[in-house]
Amino acid sequence: MSKLIKVAMLYIGQKEVPGPGVNAWIKDTWLSLPGGKWFWGEYGQDDSKLPWCGAFMARVCKEAGFQFPAKYSSALAWATWGEPLNYPAQGCVAVLTRDGGGHVAIVTGISRDGKSVRLLGGNQGDAVRESWFPTTRVKYWRAPAGEALAKVAVAESDEFSKSEA
Fold first, then answer.
1. The sheet that has 83-85: what strands, in order across it?
2. First and final CA of the chain: distance in angstroms?
3. In this structure, what are the phi and psi dihedrals at residue 85, rounded to the nearest 5 degrees?
4. Contact criterion met (CB below 8 Å) for 40 and 31
5. For burial by CB atoms within 10 Å, which of 102, 109, 137, 160 has the most?
6. Do the Cβ atoms of 110 and 88 come closer than 8 Å?
7. How far lies 119's CA from each of 49, 123, 159, in Å?
8. pLDDT, tens digit, for every residue of 70-125?
């Protein structure tokens, strides 16, 4: 199992607090990263108002012993992180586009026909979870520098994610 998947799985189930509240784990994620204190303050210290997929990925990378982009909070900044791949691998990072920005998460599976990819990430349905996405939304596949990754696991796809940032 890839280092990124091992670390990310530890946090499955962490989720935003609805309304003007805060999950202490999400707050700690921001405050433990360079510049995170500023970013957290700019969004009014409300975890439901800030996109945190990039911060989640930075925390996972930090704990797994990998560098992360200086502008980690922008999902699209991950497009140049690590080493480029032409196809998904188990534990690689997928960078997606969406209306208003992007999303970044870790590949954990692919459908038999290759049209759907399962990703483990933060701020997927306001939580850390695995969700399915159309592979057409993935613009970049990136591997952690120096880590050999296995072939991506084939899995039965499910309903696509409807909320991520």
1. 83-85, 138-143, 93-98, 101-110, 116-121, 129-134
2. 25
3. -125, 150
4. yes
5. 102
6. yes
7. 22, 11, 13
8. 999 999 999 999 999 999 999 999 999 988 889 999 999 999 999 999 999 999 99
| Cβ proximity of 53 and 133 under 8 Å | no
DSSP code per residue over 128-149: SEEEEEEGGGEEEEEEPTT---
Tokens of 148: 């050999």
pLDDT tens, position by position, 126-154: 999 999 999 999 999 999 999 999 999 99
β-strand partners of 127: 15
Residue 66 in tokens: 């990998």
Residue 19 identity: G
From residue 159, alpha-carbon distances to 43, 141, 156 in Å are 31, 22, 10
